[in-house]
Write a structure and sequence with these properties.
elongated; Multidrug-efflux Transporter Regulator, Chain: A, Domain 2; mainly alpha
Length: about 250
């Protein structure tokens, strides 16, 4: 007869594992001897080795008891079902690994290729990182709500960024977003922005498919993160334009 330590040693597991199998009902607990110790026989060793083998093969402990008591045909069918479950889990893990690997991919984690290309173009023409990051976060919100519209938006943005005046405005934004609402330079900035919008193709603001609710959400981010945002919006409205994300002429 064997002690629990000897049983664990013969089966190649720990005493803690044996107790865990007892708790799960996989390995029956023997009666204690007159000294109060559990004593195991050879059958217990065989049973424990079988449990260990199944567990190491990836069989969930909840299914081990089923296999231990199954006949040959039943065992084969059960193993096939378990194998199918494991294959599904492997596929899910592989998908998760790809998602985790995407964390190192930066922009491409939550944006389509055309948006990634646009952000890369911003960097290539020297747009400061803080502005690029703000653009990225905004487009992540848009892509989540309007994925089918992203090619349209990115084609429009690529055309805009090809304009040297637009690129200069983007570079100046790093300073502008730090200005206070009473900064005397704000009217001039708004005049530049209006001039760019009036020179742009009309479809850039007339056919924007973005829902007003999403535009309002993005405008809220602008208002909450830029001290002079409310003043900029007010100056735009004085000049006949409204909004920020969905900037267009007032009706």
């Amino acid at each position: 007869m064997l002690t629990i330590s000897q049983l664990a040693s013969y089966a190649g597991v720990t005493v803690r594992t044996v107790r865990h199998y007892h708790a799960k009902g996989l390995l029956p607990e023997p009666r204690r001897d007159h000294s109060g110790y559990r004593r195991y026989d050879a059958d217990a060793v065989v049973q424990l080795i079988r449990i260990r083998t199944l567990a190491e093969a990836g069989v969930p402990l909840a299914r081990v008891l089923e296999l231990l008591s199954a006949g040959d045909e039943e065992f084969t069918a059960a193993v096939s079902r378990i194998d199918a479950d494991l294959r599904r889990q492997v596929r899910e893990l592989q998908r998760n690994r790809r998602r985790i690997a995407g964390l190192a991919a930066g922009d491409s984690l939550a944006l389509p290729p055309e948006a990634v290309a646009y952000l890369e173009r911003l960097r290539e023409v020297g747009i400061p990182g803080v502005v690029v990051d703000a653009e990225r976060d905004a487009w992540i919100l848009v892509a989540a709500q309007l994925p089918e519209q992203m090619p349209y938006y990115m084609e429009l943005k690529q055309r805009q960024i090809a304009d040297p005046d637009v690129r200069e405005f983007y570079r100046d934004l790093v300073e502008i977003i730090e200005w206070t609402p009473d900064d005397a330079r704000l009217p001039g900035v708004v005049d530049r922005l209006v001039a760019q919008m009036e020179a742009d193709a009309p479809e850039s603001w007339q056919d924007d498919p973005m829902p007003d609710s999403l535009a309002a959400l993005l405008d809220t981010v602008f208002v909450e993160s830029v001290p002079a945002a409310r003043r900029i919006l007010a100056l735009l409205e004085e000049r006949g334009w409204t909004g920020w994300t969905k900037l267009g002429p007032t009706e």
